[in-house]
Amino acid sequence: MSTANPPTRHAADDALEGLFVEIFDGHLAPGEALPAERLLAERYGVSRITVRQAVHKLKDAGLVEVRQGGASRVLDPARADARVFELLLRYGARLRSDAARRLLRDLDEYQQLYAIGLLEAAARHATDDERAELLAEVEGCPATPTPEQLQALERRVWQRLTAFGRNRVLQMEMALWQRWLGEEPPSAGDPAELRWFYLTLVRQLHARQDPIPFYLASVRTPAA
């Protein structure tokens, strides 16, 4: 599942990404004080205001405790909650610790379970006209799409499936995924093969076949 747009980086990203990786990989241990703003600004080549913004984003994600008049301290990432998802999706590829990689595998599995929910709801509630319109849209994508064309196709398919399901909770969660994944690059893999994947998935939905077994067979990888 992807709803990505081309990546855009901002001044705070280097500091935010660097601190996030240091916390999750254990280089900054739970209970440890963050380095002074001045030192972090020098390390990442940004202003102290930018460092402060990054630290507050980590606070909002439940990874840092900000103390007025005192040093900010690292919280245990093992106790992090769903607020950390956005940072995991943006910066998780840089994580190297075993615990962090396990969490990323769990997040990947969760995305698959969420996609299954979307497919099941769409299979239950989509009208014949909606199924036909989506199939025509996917068939209209070039057989060998550019990465940008594939990206647009992926985004459109999942948006349409979410709408077909007529479930407001799933729709609200999709809005979150769109926001979280909004700065990610296009999906890795051969665009022609991924286009075939979506075409097969939508053809099964159009034929009122269960698309979930095909989806699972296509996306599951052996357990590590």
UniProtKB/TrEMBL annotation:
Keyword annotations for this protein, in alphabetical order, are: DNA-binding, Transcription, Transcription regulation
Task: Please give one Pfam family short name.
Answer: GntR
- Which terms does the record give in the GO molecular function aspect? DNA binding; DNA-binding transcription factor activity
Q: Does the keyword DNA-binding apply?
A: yes
The chain positions of domain HTH gntR-type read: 9-77
InterPro entries membership: Tscrpt_reg_HTH_GntR (IPR000524), WH-like_DNA-bd_sf (IPR036388), WH_DNA-bd_sf (IPR036390)
Which PANTHER family would you find in this protein's record? GLUCONATE OPERON TRANSCRIPTIONAL REPRESSOR, TRANSCRIPTIONAL REGULATOR, GNTR FAMILY
Protein name, entry field: HTH gntR-type domain-containing protein
> Which lineage do the record's taxonomy fields give for this organism?
Bacteria, Pseudomonadati, Pseudomonadota, Gammaproteobacteria, Pseudomonadales
